[in-house]
Write a structure and sequence with these properties.
The structure holds 2 protein chains of 2 kinds.
Chain A: H1 3-13, H2 26-30, H3 39-52, E1 59-62, E2 78-80, H4 87-97, E3 102-108, H5 109-113, H6 117-125, E4 131-136, H7 166-169, H8 175-180, E5 185-192, H9 196-214, E6 219-225, H10 229-232, H11 236-250, E7 254-258
Parallel strand pairs in A: 1-2, 1-3, 3-4, 4-6, 5-6
Antiparallel strand pairs in A: 5-7
Helix pairs in contact in A: 3-9, 4-6
Chain B: E1 3-8, H1 9-19, E2 24-27, H2 34-46, E3 50-53, H3 57-69, E4 74-79, H4 80-95, E5 100-106, H5 122-126, E6 136-138, H6 143-160, E7 163-169, H7 170-174, E8 176-181, E9 209-210, H8 222-236, E10 242-245, E11 252-256, H9 258-273, E12 278-283, E13 285-287, H10 291-297, E14 303-307, H11 314-322, E15 328-331, H12 347-357
Parallel strand pairs in B: 2-3, 2-4, 4-5, 5-7, 6-7, 11-12, 11-14, 14-15
Antiparallel strand pairs in B: 1-8, 6-13, 10-12
The chains are: A alpha/beta, B alpha/beta.
């Protein structure tokens, strides 16, 4: 890409929200994502949502281990990186110590509901006033596309070379629906970024989740389905089509819980 | 404010933490440390603090990680099997420069076993876990010391921005002794301007990023980061603490910490009453270990007995310290007065060993 095109792309097409205009070195991070990866869009949605809610940088972001963890260094606000899966534990303590700020985690599906299932369920049990945003790309991206709890039946990964077999590997886990079953959960939704319409709806979900935390209602959760073109061995466009054809039928989109108070 | 009460060692952990201004406790029930969390469950919220019973020990240590990142004094306490689960988190705290106090009330092992006292986590506590971190380890041997060392632990944790471990055990946790609750004054420490707050840019106009990663804190290179840790560990060596008891002219020196140090002290008195020249060197910091003081005493026919309620862990540090210049014997868990889990190493048995060596 020529220098001119690069500038045009940055200034015209990808105008960043204020929260994404960090220090110069942060720009390097965006190059760490693979072609066709949609995780940067999740960062953008978070930044836009927090700006629109007037929270701005009065928030603490808790990252994770995995591709989604790359987002940790990209937002201009205080940030804490936890061990793999421990985001809700770290966020729990930060919210208890700083109850007047917005504390949220951004986690991958493996981080959130495989190794981090205990911390997530613990936080939901205690009705922590935090927000968990889980990126679901149906595999472990950073490590090379292994089986995740969210991998579809029959989906080929590097550790399910013949496709996910329910007799051996069980079934995809539905985290947003699970979160909705907890009494301490104020809000739970699943969005996707494969069409502009779903992108806008997902932004609304993320915004609402933060709103629930600000109002102190309870735990809030948003699952976001994103494309992982490289590990799915597809072109970026094909990956988006595949989400519509295969992923969304397994993981229905929408709100699963939305309450104004928990009684 | 000073208050005198009767308390057990585990309660002294809690009172010491409160005296130190601890604001948060995170923990998971496990015997024999439950009294620590039960006391703080009542006392911390009354003082505006935070008490969270976590879903597991891994949760507790990572909550401690979060609270430390948030800039407040915080702690957790556990027993041996829980300690195993916490080690990853302690490594992350060390890597992320986060201060916090971890209390380990040891019980018998290996594995989950039962809940009686022992000193079987010396190696895993003093040698560090994954990634080769080190932490200061304080080993009290009385209820009062437990209270005082908790305050010292919080001070040292903040001073070095590093986790500090207080190593207790089932007996020390449950003996009841008079306790003077008082706040100890330490040198003033700088404000934690490195902590996250979620209140927009900090005074220097920047945001904080905390995590177990060397970038971008240390000029971007991994070796700079490791060198910074080497310097930190070197500086921590100055925190060495130990007690000597009748070591002058002693032919046999017992080395013991925790409850075993109390037993050893009594054995030394019994030996001296018989005219046997015995003494005690009690490591108070297990890391840094008092290697130099032991080395200074080695040779000239002097013998050492490492007294510990395990199959022998600290004895390796004693052997390394004396560099082969003295014989080092081991009075271990097999010296207990009865073969069941409730057995204890008693002074009479140690006296026999002193007699054998002199």
């Amino acid at each position: 890409m020529s220098e001119t095109t690069k500038n045009i792309t940055r200034e015209v097409v990808v105008e960043k929200p204020l929260l994404l205009r960090g220090e110069e070195w942060m720009d390097i991070l965006w190059d760490l994502f693979c072609p066709g990866c949609q995780i940067p869009l999740v960062g953008r949605l978070i930044a836009e949502s927090l700006e629109e809610l007037g929270v701005g940088s009065n928030a603490i972001m808790v990252g994770c281990v995995g591709c989604t963890g790359i987002l940790i260094a990209s937002l201009t606000m205080d940030r804490v990186s936890p061990a793999h899966g421990r985001g809700p534990d770290v966020a729990t303590a930060l919210k208890r110590v700083h109850p007047d700020t917005v504390v949220y985690t951004v986690q991958g599906d493996g981080d959130c509901i495989a190794i981090g299932a205990g911390p997530l369920i613990g936080a939901m049990t205690r009705a922590e006033k935090i927000t968990v945003i889980m990126v679901n790309n149906t595999n472990y991206g950073t490590t090379g596309g292994q089986l995740a709890p969210t991998t579809l039946i029959g989906q080929v990964t590097s550790t399910t070379p013949k496709g996910r077999n329910p007799d051996l590997e069980g079934y995809p886990v539905h985290t947003a629906e699970l979160a909705a079953t907890f009494k301490g959960t104020a809000y739970s939704a699943r969005g996707s970024l494969h069409t502009p319409a779903e992108y806008q709806r997902t932004k609304k979900y993320i915004r609402t989740a933060f709103q629930k935390q600000i109002e102190g209602v309870g735990f809030s959760f948003v699952e976001v389905i994103t494309a992982c073109a490289v590990n799915w061995h597809m072109t970026p466009v094909k990956a988006l089509e595949w989400i519509g054809e295969k992923v969304v039928p397994e993981f229905p989109l929408g709100e699963f819980k939305n309450v104004t108070h928990i009684k | 404010m000073t208050k005198r009460i009767l308390a057990e060692g585990n309660e002294a952990v809690g009172w010491g933490a409160l005296s130190a201004g601890c604001k948060c406790f995170f923990g998971y029930p496990i015997t024999p440390q439950n009294e620590v969390m039960e006391l703080l469950a009542k006392e911390l919220p009354e003082r505006g603090g935070v008490f969270v019973q976590s879903q597991c020990e891994t949760g507790a240590i990572n909550m401690l990680y979060g609270a430390a990142a948030g800039g407040v004094r915080a702690m957790t306490s556990t027993a041996s099997p829980g300690w195993a689960l916490m080690q990853e988190g302690v490594s992350d705290m060390a890597a992320a420069n986060l201060p916090g106090v971890i209390v380990v009330v040891q019980r018998i092992g290996p594995g989950v076993q039962r809940v009686e006292h022992a000193q079987m986590d010396y190696n895993s506590v003093t040698k560090g876990g994954v990634g080769g971190y080190k932490t200061i380890v304080l080993a009290p041997s009385s209820v009062q010391e437990t209270h005082d060392f908790m305050q010292l632990a919080f001070h040292l944790a903040d001073k070095y921005r590093h986790p500090v471990i207080v190593l207790s055990e089932g007996i020390l946790g449950h003996i009841i002794e008079p306790l003077e609750i008082k706040t100890i004054d330490f040198e003033p420490l700088p404000e934690k301007d490195w902590a996250v707050a979620g209140h927009g840019p900090h005074r220097d106009g920047k945001f904080r990023e905390l995590g177990p990663s060397y970038h971008p804190l240390y000029d971007g290179t991994y070796l700079n980061y490791l060198n910074a840790y080497r310097e930190k560990y070197k500086a921590m060596q100055s925190e060495l603490r130990y007690e000597e008891y009748k070591t002058r002219g002693a032919k046999v020196i017992l080395v013991a910490y925790g409850y075993c140090a109390r037993v050893a002290k009594e054995a030394v008195d019994m030996a001296r009453a018989e005219g046997l020249k015995a003494g005690l060197l009690r490591p108070i910091t297990l890391w840094p270990f008092p290697s130099q003081p032991l080395r200074d005493k080695a040779g000239r026919g002097r013998k050492f007995i490492a007294v510990e309620d395990s199959l022998g862990q600290m004895v390796d540090d004693v052997k390394a310290a004396v560099e082969g210049k003295s014989e080092v014997c081991l009075a271990d868990v097999t010296f207990r007065h009865m073969p069941s889990e409730e057995g204890m190493i008693l002074p009479g048995r140690l006296l026999q060993e002193i007699r054998r060596l002199i």
